[in-house]
Known about the structure:
Layout: E1 5-10, H1 19-32, E2 37-42, H2 44-47, H3 54-71, E3 79-82, H4 88-97, H5 102-106, H6 109-118, H7 125-139, E4 145-147, H8 153-169, E5 178-180, H9 215-223, H10 241-254, H11 258-264, H12 270-296, H13 299-328
Parallel strand pairs: 1-2, 2-3, 4-5
Helix pairs in contact: 3-12, 4-7, 4-13, 7-8, 9-12, 10-12
Bound molecules: ligand 1.
Ligand 1 is lined by residues 7-11, 20-21, 24-25, 43, 46, 134, 137-138, 146, 148-149, 151-152, 155, 186-188, 197-199.
Amino acid sequence: MSKKRVLSGIQPTHDSFHLGNYLGALKQWVALQKDNDAFYCVVDLHALTVETDPKLLERRTLLSAAQLIAIGVDPKQCTLFIQSHVPAHNQLAWVLECLTGFGEAGRMTQFKDKSQKGGNDRTNVGLFTYPILQAADILLYQADFVPVGEDQRQHIELTRDLGQRFNSKYKEVFNIPQAQIIKSLAKINDLQDPTAKMSKSANSMSGVIELLDLPEVTIKKFKSSVTDTGKEVKYDEKEKAGISNLLTIHSAFSGKSIKDIESEFAGKGYGDFKTQVGEIVVAALDPIRKRTEELMGDQSELLRILKSGADKANEVASKTLADAYAALGLIKNG
Length: 334
Ligand code: TYM
């Protein structure tokens, strides 16, 4: 049986990825690269929707690639590349924009949230067309599966709709992908506001665990995490959102079931539990931070890896784009 195609992307909008990115998406990236034909990209063009100093964007793009490799994304097992190195992403995005309704794009909840926060004057058109560029990222590679967290579900639905629309209007060019979402890890919450998703755009970073935080910072963030007035370490999303979030994190790193962790902490206070979750997370993240630093020490090697990834990505993407252009009646040059 031929391998399934997997594609996913992550924005280089901050120096460090956070625990939500890691548990919701990136751990899946690593697991899926073994038995599938996986393409993973750092979506630097998407990051332009947030105004960033150019030097900082450059650094964060490389830091993102380094972190992915440090986490276990292996350029020998998958294709790792930078989105802007493959021009077909923008080219297909335009085609898909011409197939997307204005109202349809306006219904995207991430767009509604971000534009509401920024207000009309600070909302750029790129933010509006953002999910369509994401659809192009995915459809170009004929992806079967897209490993993501829950917040991306609607964007993958739009991708499926646009792929199907193109196929039925013109010609069967695109494979229709499925979101691959692991329910229990799909929404990791903020440690200070455990009913809200952990997010790079949080107002304060005190509830956001960054992969590149120093151990003492991580431990402090766990120790001061918001819980409730009760005493029992028990999973109850409604009444004990903070404890439930910590149980999810513990279980993801320790591999123990939530039930076993609950029994382990029966009769003990929240303090012990918070400290242990912090220590388990630090043990896993510390090598990632150190490996990222090492990789950043040899940027020419990083660039070489990314170039080889872009070469492979360009081959696949330009073939799909040519098929789509031909189906549309765009005349080939020469
Ligand atoms: P981004 O960069 O915001 O996030 C990267 C991945 O992390 C997941 N994630 C979470 N999962 C669980 N809990 C959380 N608190 C949490 N926060 C973030 C996201 O769901 C995502 O999988 N639009 C995408 C980037 C993108 C993309 C693509 C993804 C561009 N093109 C093509 C897949 C395929 C984004 O902004 O992800």
